[in-house]
Amino acid sequence: MEAMNGIEKPWGPELPDSDSPERQRLDLPRPPSTPRFYPVLGLLLGAAASIFIGHPLAMVALNIQEYINNQSPLELTHRILHSYSIRMWPMISLYFLSGAVFGAGFGKIYQKLVENRLHIEHLYQEFELQVASLRHHYKNMTIGIQGFSQRIKRKVTDLTRDVNQCHGQECPIDNCFCRNLPALERDVNTMVDTTQRLNETLEKELILLKVLTGSTLVPQPRDFYPVLAGAIQDLLGLRFRDKLIEVEINGKPYAKFSGSLIFNFDLATMQVIVENILSNAMKFGDQVRVVTKEVNNRVAISIMDNGPGFEVSELKKQLLSLRERREAKSTKLGLKVSLHLLEKCGGALYVWSKPGIGSAFTLEFPK
């Protein structure tokens, strides 16, 4: 109606003037500056402590020593008052200067410690920002690839339908492009599935980055079994989709198991830990059993497999070896990440294994 009457409707809000007080500048948080008064404060405190504490104590100690050696009577109050007499000014000046120098030195050291702590906190914030930007970049990239592949799939499906509607299933023209449509459709479906798996894999890697770079955990009362079932389904559907693996939870097939185990844990941290231990079990065995117990106000989660097993002493040696840390093999890297996260959340990891029999990893968490 307004356009018909010749009145143009304004697009969005009016832009305020450059000097308008309504405009507010946005800035990134700056690292706090280090107070410069620590050396001066140390100088003053050191001088005061030396005059009012150090010098009188020295006079008291001297009087006690003379009393022990039977050189003078014990007169502590007199000696303290005498220490501030006018003729003691050279000694007072010496204590003042020495206390001021030591106080200023300690103040400077404390200032450096505060500066280093603030610098480390600033570097950590920058690292978190870089990780967050990396997560955002990869997430947008995978979303774009997935959307593009789905559009191609829709177009190929529409093209196949149109060709079939034109001349049926059998094309009368030899060497027609439509004969390659089924193969093209299969390739596009493979591309869509691959991008879906890539997206899910990157999502898990981003969760891992978030957990490793997070400074604090947010434990809340949650049910553990949905986390366990989700990790099993993800591993069987993606990484081990071509391997036949039987998984049981407390003696029942995982798909038929139902129950609840509620305790405090951080969701993202628990997802990474459980998936790391489960992936190792599924990698080396085709039968995996999960047993949960509650003992002495702690929750124990045992993950057992029928794999080839190993020597526990050798595994502990490899986890502590500098060479192994540099090589960062995938299996041991997952264990190291799990141990790091368990340490953050107050948990523990126990292992039992015999060569030729299998392995059992037990996670323990405070309830």
Number of distinct helices: 9
Count of β-strands: 8
> Percent of residues in beta strands?
5-15%
Pick out the low-confidence regions: 324-330
Amino-to-carboxy terminus distance = 66 Å
Instruction: Tell me the series of helices and strands, N- to C-terminal.
Output: HHHHEHEEEHEEHHHEE
Question: Largest sheet, order of strands side by side?
Answer: 3-2-5-6-8-7
Cα-atom Rg, whole angstroms? 36 Å
For the largest beta-sheet, the strand count, sense and barrel status come to: 6 strands, mixed
Give the structure's gist in a few sentences:
The protein contains nine helices and eight strands. It is of the alpha+beta class and 367 residues long.
Summary tags:
367 residues; alpha+beta; Heat Shock Protein 90; 6-stranded mixed beta sheet; 9 helices; 8 strands; 13% strand; elongated
Helices, strands, pairings?
Elements: H1 38-68, H2 76-82, H3 89-167, H4 181-213, E1 220-223, H5 224-239, E2 246-249, E3 252-253, E4 262-265, H6 267-284, E5 287-295, E6 298-305, H7 312-320, H8 322-327, H9 330-344, E7 348-354, E8 358-366
Parallel strand pairs: 2-5
Antiparallel strand pairs: 1-4, 2-3, 5-6, 6-8, 7-8
